[in-house]
Amino acid sequence: MEGHFLTDRGKVRNHNEDAGGLFYNKSNQLIAIIADGMGGHQAGDVASKLATESIKQKWLETDHLGGPEQVEGWLKEAVQQTNQHIFKKSQEDKRCEGMGTTVVIAVALEEYVTIAHVGDSRCYLLNEDGFQQVTEDHSFVNELVRIGQISEDDAEIHPRKNVILRALGTDNQVNVDLKTLTWQKNDRLLLCSDGLSDKVTEHELADFTDSTKDIEVIGNELIQLANNRGGEDNISLILIVHPDSAEEAGEPVE
């Protein structure tokens, strides 16, 4: 399984509140995580690192997962446990009061990929049908778009664009969106924080993701583009290419 994680502080922030990575369980199955600590709150970087480390450790201790129902169940439990862990930390440590983080997670196996997300970090899929966003932002402006009060173009310049309606760690319980998709050889996944998606159009993301260049080169070019356009936020992304064989993906799905 070919994948690459990149993160950058950007050109304005004095530290990076994003975290993430690519990790393999005992059966060599892949999980990809991006977490974006809530800006304007205390200890956003603590929340994003806690989210990443909590899910990572649970994954490293996990044996082979089979069908989509099993993967979705694992993700739902892992996200809930992680949410409670972050929430407890915020209650116990005054320095962390009010912290929270988005999270977007992909479990990428040979025949399908399962996505879990909370907040406005995104996942896109490139396949034979084109390039599409497969997550829906849990944000104030997206809710306005959904109910028809503003257009998608209006949402791009709305003054409350970065207001998040759902995040890990801000309450004892959280609703997580889950989606399982089939994917095939040469399909690609792009996971990213809003530091990228706010600066690069979906059409541009599609063109970069579809490039024949090495995925690390693509990732670095995307980060450079976001920085060239202001780089006001931290920028993180993961690119994953569907494996050519079941051997690369880990054990076959039963």
TrEMBL record:
Pfam families xref list: PP2C_2
Q: Classify the source by domain of life.
A: Bacteria
PPM-type phosphatase domain mapped to chain residues: 2-242
| Reaction(s) the record says it catalyses | O-phospho-L-seryl-[protein] + H2O = L-seryl-[protein] + phosphate; O-phospho-L-threonyl-[protein] + H2O = L-threonyl-[protein] + phosphate
Enzyme Commission number: 3.1.3.16
Group of enzyme by EC: hydrolase
Is-annotated flag, keyword Hydrolase? yes
GO terms assigned for molecular function: metal ion binding; protein serine/threonine phosphatase activity
Q: By its UniProt entry, which Gene3D superfamilies does this protein fall under?
A: PPM-type phosphatase domain (3.60.40.10)
List the cofactors.
Answer: Mn(2+)
Write the record's keywords in alphabetical order, separated by commas. Answer: Hydrolase, Manganese, Metal-binding, Protein phosphatase
NCBIfam families from the xrefs? Answer: Stp1_PP2C_phos
Q: What is this protein called?
A: protein-serine/threonine phosphatase
